[in-house]
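Quick one: structure tokens for this chain, please?
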Amino acid sequence: MNELENEPDDKKKLERWYLDEMLSKLGLKPDEIVSRESPDFLVTFPGKEARVGVEVTELLRQEAVRSSKRKDSALESACTIYRDNPKNAPLCVSVAYGPEASKLNERELRDRLLNHLSGHREGSFRGLEVPKGYLYISSRPVASWDGIEWIATWADQVPMATQKDLAQCIAAKESKAARYRRNANEVWLLIVNDDTAHLDGYHLDLGKAMKWDFTFAFDRVLVLRREPGLTALVELRHSEHRSHSPLDRTIS
């Protein structure tokens, strides 16, 4: 496999991590992974002539992506203090406030977050792992501060994903499936539902998603769900229940 360090872009590194998680959970060990665009990756497996194109996309709410850009004063203050300390490397942070946050002032929220980050530079934390006023704190190192905004939301405002939401996510990539096939024998779509990267998506019930039927031009559509302490993969069912890829199919 190509090493993650060879990927120049943070977004591409994350997509590669998602791809590796998918392959691991499918029990597949490719001979080669080529990073590209349209689709995102070309994967070749040992003993098989088929080259599989994998497109990676995220299950996001576009209106939430826009509204989450709104700066929160406590978070903005914490980010400024953190960045101004030359000892601190660039960091991407997402937080979810809990009901108790309304009882705390800006300084209390800011200081509690900074104290948490001083001992937890990387990872996703919730519940008893985070200070009062927060439901969730996720942080990860990045290459530079360019374009980085710390994002805040209220976790109880994140809706559950419906079948229609997933169908729209698939449809957004459907028109490109034919183009992807120019470079691959098979084309897979990997939909990512990652609570640890940001909070601008949905909460997806994988048990329900496995029972829904969809129509799509991809050979396989898989969903990778990631939350603190858990990463799980399911394959979405085509409405015609057509046969799956000749590659081994083991979803856990």
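Residues 49 and 148 are 42 Å apart (CA to CA).
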